[in-house]
């Protein structure tokens, strides 16, 4: 009877705080408009219009974000759309981070001067190695769908970091992943490698999504709700079976760690980073990392904070494995993109340390530290991939390390910038990478994770070796006679690299402003 | 007078910037770099006059907030030890520039780039000694590696890449472990004071009362960094490679100046911050120190390469310095600090002289030389003087220091002191044997006669060789060092006056008292 009565009631539309979620609506709305433009505009106009739309929508979204963040909003944040989206201080910080990093990535994506016509294939349907493929490689046409795909991925990421229940989080995960799978397969050169990367990423990503969804199902069985706060309440005091809770937690976290490229769930990372078009790699390395760790931070601190003593040991071990894999396998790499991929696995280990730095009193000193690290790492990575895209020979990018020998003699500015970025990745003082590591490690020591920090420091020293090796190659080796040339970048790539390098320097010297901002508030619980 | 300290930090940086723009014109670059380094020397003299030995613990203190969220400040100030080290840097850099005036750099490298890095190195090293914020000290400790990495890797010998990376990784790892300890100290301060700080003076008051387990761990973190830097055996293996591969001027900086950051760190950070642990772990450090004295001396005796020889000599001397520091008497402490100064001067001079020999012969193998005093008597004299001060002959500056270390260490650590004394005997052996092989006997060796003469060939002293004696420029470089060596050998009081109060304050912070003052002991 009750059921019937309930069905008879009219469904009330939930309250929507349009001001709070305006950035999200703008990005997703622009993505939809962008799809329509793709259908309606003639081919030769698409690139310019799509680019303007994408950049304008990002700037507009950032603008509304700033307006909302500086307005008189509730200190603890709000939940809107029937509690599906939480707009709190961390959400706003991560949204802003995602928007600025995506802005930089889109500049790299839009560049058509480094590779004539852009880094993307003219028509994705052309089979690799055929006559049409060879023809498209020399022409300047480009699959302009990359812009709506990027916008959808960005919208998914923004939803992911703000998702207040696990189902929203899952949908956001798919919205951010599917466009990325496609983007990986769109490289103009080395199409086979690119398509292999896309298929690999898709298959493994599908597995990870399945794990995530299964975890959601088990947690729903445990808590009777998919809301993060409801899971926290249920875990706080019930006599329900812990098996469901921890099985669900484990599966859920596997899905998240996969997206974040944390070892041992990193197997896709080197192949995908290598095969994907470099601008897309930059976008994935910077923004997907932010989104995935934004999600991990929220899930761990909101839903599972009060069970931290049960799971902390597991993630402790995962962090160690990730740092060790990243640092040691990074030593053996001979391809600069794969090397940065393994470096990202090591960095994921450092980020995980920040994510599990919860004190027994329930404080989470690691949240603001991890968010700062994400911002700093994102900018450095985008600039680093921007530089990777400049070093080319007749086959496209020259990513084999031996081809980078003696680069400093030919292009001192490019070599100096890349050296600076590598030092930042290694965490040398006066770069943002150092401040990021410092805040994360301080938070971890505060939370009683000192042994983990010592392991992390040793891993940093090991990882420093492979960054140094590139510097040695560029500065102290003689250039190969048939070595690659460094393309003079167009305005877009120049802006992206400059932005990344300048932010890396500024955050290394004056991090206070961003640190304060990252530390303004906690997750809505 | 705080402006002097700030100027000391800024002048070399400005110089580096100017010189970096003169990469096209080597001559102008050298002149400008020399001018800036001389300005720095004048500033260092001013700093010395501004320092009041009987004044505060840290003088000329100045600072601004850097990262308020962590209580990190850009704060600088000097005590007697830092003053002495800054003065010796300012003294050596112009001599290094002068000594390398005609040195040929690897193809494609400009003097502008080289000298610019040297000046950056000078600025950062001065800043390391002047930093009074532990976070700032760590930052500079690591940043100090970057110009040196490029100096060794870009301008060094055949295995320079290996040496540069090894140097960097050793120090970087040590620094990172130190960072963990620094964060640990910071966390203690935030617990105790409610607000975190990295201010040295504040951290000292907080950390010194920690329980002894915590102190031990934090001590070990800092100690590892300093033991690698100093270097103490068994953390020394980077030094022979770095010293052998670096160009000679850079070897002076590595061995003469950078290494002192390690022993300086022990005095400034280890002892005051962790007095309990320093006393408990002193036997460990002393074992490493005495092992270093013997090991360094023996390996120095057996070296065939002059630059590696210099590295092992330094390792032996650092053993003496560490012995003095961890004996906890004011005599030994003053001896160690003056040893830090005198080692820079006498080893610096020895390296410069060896560099002049290598510049003539084109080889750093001892066996390529022989009977060189026949053609270069002045150079031979200089090698003898620098060698004698290295083996601490009475009347030279090093004698005062070594004597103070041994006499001061004996009351508290008789066994270690007696073993270390063997190092003095070995020093006479390796120095005089080096002199004998290079300078005395008939003129011989591939480097002097040319490879065509073949091994074992003996030259005719009457015949003209291309090897000449010291030039006016080289005399100008070495003369000030000879004067200082003898002056400080006979009248060390000005230096001892400056460092004695600081050493006394350090020992008070450790909580040891000893009735014997330096003045009476002398």
Topology:
The complex is a heterodimer of chains A (525) and B (522).
Chain A: H1 2-8, H2 18-40, H3 43-70, E1 78-80, E2 85-87, H4 89-110, H5 131-138, H6 146-162, H7 166-184, H8 191-223, H9 228-236, H10 242-259, H11 268-275, H12 278-303, H13 308-331, H14 336-355, H15 365-388, E3 391-393, E4 396-397, H16 407-410, H17 412-426, H18 432-446, H19 450-476, E5 485-486, H20 491-509, H21 512-518
Helix pairs in contact in A: 2-3, 2-6, 3-4, 4-6, 4-12, 4-15, 4-20, 6-7, 6-12, 7-8, 7-12, 8-9, 8-10, 8-11, 10-12, 11-12, 11-14, 12-14, 12-15, 13-14, 13-19, 14-15, 14-18, 14-19, 15-17, 15-18, 15-20, 17-19, 18-20
Chain B: H1 2-20, H2 26-50, E1 59-67, E2 72-78, H3 80-99, H4 111-130, H5 134-143, H6 145-155, H7 160-193, H8 200-207, H9 212-229, H10 238-245, H11 248-258, H12 260-273, H13 275-302, H14 306-325, H15 330-361, H16 377-390, H17 397-409, H18 414-439, H19 446-449, H20 472-490, H21 493-510, H22 518-521
Helix pairs in contact in B: 1-2, 1-4, 2-3, 2-4, 3-4, 3-11, 3-15, 3-20, 3-21, 4-5, 4-6, 5-7, 6-7, 7-8, 7-9, 7-10, 9-12, 9-13, 10-11, 10-14, 11-15, 12-21, 13-14, 13-18, 14-15, 14-17, 14-18, 15-16, 15-17, 15-20, 15-21, 16-18, 17-20
Can you characterise this structure?
The complex is a heterodimer of chains A (525) and B (522). By secondary structure, chain A is an all-alpha fold. Chain A has one domain (13-518). Chain A has helices spanning 2-8, 18-40, 43-70, 89-110, 131-138, 146-162, 166-184, 191-223, 228-236, 242-259, 268-275, 278-303, 308-331, 336-355, 365-388, 407-410, 412-426, 432-446, 450-476, 491-509, 512-518, and strands at residues 78-80, 85-87, 391-393, 396-397, 485-486. Chain B has 522 residues and is mainly alpha-helical. Chain B has a domain at 279-488. Chain B has helices at residues 2-20, 26-50, 80-99, 111-130, 134-143, 145-155, 160-193, 200-207, 212-229, 238-245, 248-258, 260-273, 275-302, 306-325, 330-361, 377-390, 397-409, 414-439, 446-449, 472-490, 493-510, 518-521; strands at residues 59-67, 72-78. In chain B, α3 runs antiparallel to α20, α9 (212-229) packs parallel to α13 (275-302) and α10 (238-245) packs across α14 (306-325). The radius of gyration of chain B is 22 Å and the shape is globular. The A-B interface holds A 409, 423, 428-430, 434-435, 438, 441-442, 445-446, 450, 453-454, 457-458, 460-461, 464-465, 468-469, 472, 475-477, 510-512, 515-516, 519 and B 67-70, 108, 138-140, 142-143, 146, 149-150, 153-154, 160-161, 164-165, 168-169, 172-173, 176-177, 179-180, 183-184, 186-187, 190.
């Amino acid at each position: 009877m009750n059921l019937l009565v309930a069905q008879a009631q009219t469904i009330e539309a939930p309250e929507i705080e349009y001001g709070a979620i305006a950035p999200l609506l703008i990005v997703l709305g622009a993505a939809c408009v962008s799809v329509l433009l793709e259908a309606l505009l003639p081919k030769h106009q698409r690139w310019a219009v799509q680019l303007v739309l994408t950049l304008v929508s990002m700037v507009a979204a950032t603008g509304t974000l700033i307006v909302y963040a500086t307005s008189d909003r509730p200190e603890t944040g709000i939940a809107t759309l029937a509690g599906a989206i939480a707009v709190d201080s961390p959400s706003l910080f991560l949204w802003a981070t995602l928007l600025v990093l995506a802005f930089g990535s889109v500049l790299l994506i839009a560049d058509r001067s480094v590779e004539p016509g852009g880094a993307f294939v003219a028509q994705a349907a052309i089979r690799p190695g055929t006559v049409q493929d060879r023809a498209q490689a020399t022409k300047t046409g480009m699959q302009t769908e990359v812009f709506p795909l990027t916008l959808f991925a960005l919208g998914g990421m923004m939803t992911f970091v703000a998702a207040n229940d696990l189902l929203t989080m899952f949908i956001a995960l798919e919205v951010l992943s599917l466009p990325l799978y496609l983007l990986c397969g769109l490289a103009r050169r080395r199409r086979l490698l690119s398509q292999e990367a896309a298929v690999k990423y898709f298959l493994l990503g599908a597995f990870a999504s399945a794990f995530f969804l299964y975890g959601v199902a088990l947690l729903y069985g445990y808590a009777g709700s998919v809301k993060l706060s409801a899971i926290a309440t249920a875990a706080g005091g019930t006599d329900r079976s812990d098996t469901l809770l921890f099985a669900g937690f484990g599966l859920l976290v596997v899905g998240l760690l996969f997206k974040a490229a944390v070892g041992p769930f990193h197997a896709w990372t080197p192949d995908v980073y290598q095969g994907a078009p470099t601008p897309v790699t930059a976008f994935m390395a910077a923004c997907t990392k932010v989104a995935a760790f934004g999600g991990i931070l929220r899930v761990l601190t909101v839903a599972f904070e009060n069970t931290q003593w049960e799971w902390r040991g597991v993630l402790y071990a995962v962090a160690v494995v990730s740092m060790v894999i990243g640092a040691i396998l990074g030593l053996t790499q001979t391809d600069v993109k794969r090397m940065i991929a393994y470096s990202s696995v090591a960095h994921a280990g450092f980020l995980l340390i920040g994510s599990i730095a919860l004190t027994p009193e329930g404080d989470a000193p690691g949240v603001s530290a991890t968010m700062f690290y994400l911002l700093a790492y994102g900018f450095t990575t985008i600039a680093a991939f921007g530089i990777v895209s400049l070093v080319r020979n007749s086959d496209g990018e020259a990513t084999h390390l031996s081809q980078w020998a003696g680069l400093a003699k030919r292009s001192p500015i490019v070599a100096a910038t890349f050296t600076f970025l590598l030092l930042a990745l290694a965490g040398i003082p006066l770069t943002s990478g150092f401040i990021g590591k410092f805040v994360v490690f301080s938070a971890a020591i505060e939370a009683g994770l000192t042994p983990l920090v010592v392991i992390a420091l040793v891993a940093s020293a090991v990882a420093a070796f492979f960054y140094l090796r590139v510097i040695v190659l560029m500065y102290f080796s003689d250039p190969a006679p048939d070595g690659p040339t460094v393309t003079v970048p167009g305005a877009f790539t120049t802006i992206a690299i400059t932005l990344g390098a300048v932010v890396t320097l500024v955050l290394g010297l004056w991090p206070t402003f961003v640190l304060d901002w990252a530390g303004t508030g906690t997750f809505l619980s | 007078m705080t402006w002097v300290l700030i100027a000391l930090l800024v002048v070399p940086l400005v110089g580096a910037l100017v010189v970096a723009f003169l990469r096209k014109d080597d001559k102008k670059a050298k002149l400008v770099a020399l001018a800036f380094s001389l300005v720095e020397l004048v500033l260092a003299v001013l700093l010395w006059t501004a320092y009041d030995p009987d004044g505060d613990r840290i003088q000329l203190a100045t600072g601004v907030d850097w990262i308020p969220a962590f209580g990190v400040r850009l704060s600088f100030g000097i005590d007697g030890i830092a003053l002495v080290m800054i003065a010796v840097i300012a003294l050596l850099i112009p001599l290094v520039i002068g000594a390398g005036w005609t040195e040929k750099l690897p193809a494609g490298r400009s003097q502008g780039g080289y000298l610019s890095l040297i000046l950056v190195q000078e600025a950062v090293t001065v800043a390391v000694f002047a930093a009074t914020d532990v976070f700032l000290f760590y930052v500079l400790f690591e940043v100090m590696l970057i110009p040196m990495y490029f100096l060794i890797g870009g301008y060094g010998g055949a295995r320079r890449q290996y040496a540069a990376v090894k140097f960097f990784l050793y120090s970087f790892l040590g620094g990172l472990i130190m960072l963990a300890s620094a964060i640990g100290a910071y966390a203690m301060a935030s617990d105790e004071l409610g607000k975190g700080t990295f201010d040295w003076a504040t951290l000292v008051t907080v950390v010194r009362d920690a329980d002894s387990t915590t102190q031990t761990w934090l001590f070990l973190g800092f100690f590892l960094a300093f033991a690698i830097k100093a270097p103490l055996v068994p953390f020394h293996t980077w030094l022979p490679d770095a010293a052998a591969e670096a160009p000679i001027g850079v070897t002076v900086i590595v061995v003469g100046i950078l290494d002192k950051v390690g022993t300086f760190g022990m005095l400034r950070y280890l002892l005051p911050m962790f007095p309990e642990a320093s006393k408990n772990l002193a036997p460990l450090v002393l074992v490493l120190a005495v092992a270093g004295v013997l090991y360094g001396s023996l390996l120095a005796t057996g070296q065939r390469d002059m630059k590696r020889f210099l590295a092992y000599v330094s390792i032996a001397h650092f053993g003496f310095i560490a012995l003095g520091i961890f004996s906890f008497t004011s005599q030994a402490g003053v001896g160690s600090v003056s040893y830090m100064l005198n080692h820079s001067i006498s080893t610096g001079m020895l390296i410069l002289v060896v560099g002049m020999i290598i510049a003539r012969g084109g080889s750093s193998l001892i066996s390529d030389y022989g009977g060189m005093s026949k053609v270069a008597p002045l150079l031979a004299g200089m090698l003898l003087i620098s060698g004698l001060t290295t083996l601490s002959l009475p009347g030279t500056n090093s004698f005062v220091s070594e004597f103070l270390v041994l006499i001061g260490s004996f009351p508290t650590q008789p066994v270690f002191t007696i073993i270390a004394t063997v190092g003095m005997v070995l020093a006479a052996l390796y120095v005089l044997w080096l002199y004998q092989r290079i300078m005395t006997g008939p003129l011989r060796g591939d480097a002097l006669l040319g490879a065509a003469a073949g091994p074992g060939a003996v030259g005719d002293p009457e015949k003209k060789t291309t090897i000449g004696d010291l030039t006016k420029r080289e005399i100008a470089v070495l003369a000030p060092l000879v004067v200082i060596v003898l002056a400080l050998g006979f009248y060390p009081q000005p230096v001892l006056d400056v460092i004695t109060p600081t050493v006394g304050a350090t020992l008070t912070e450790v909580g040891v008292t000893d009735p014997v003052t330096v003045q009476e002991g002398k």
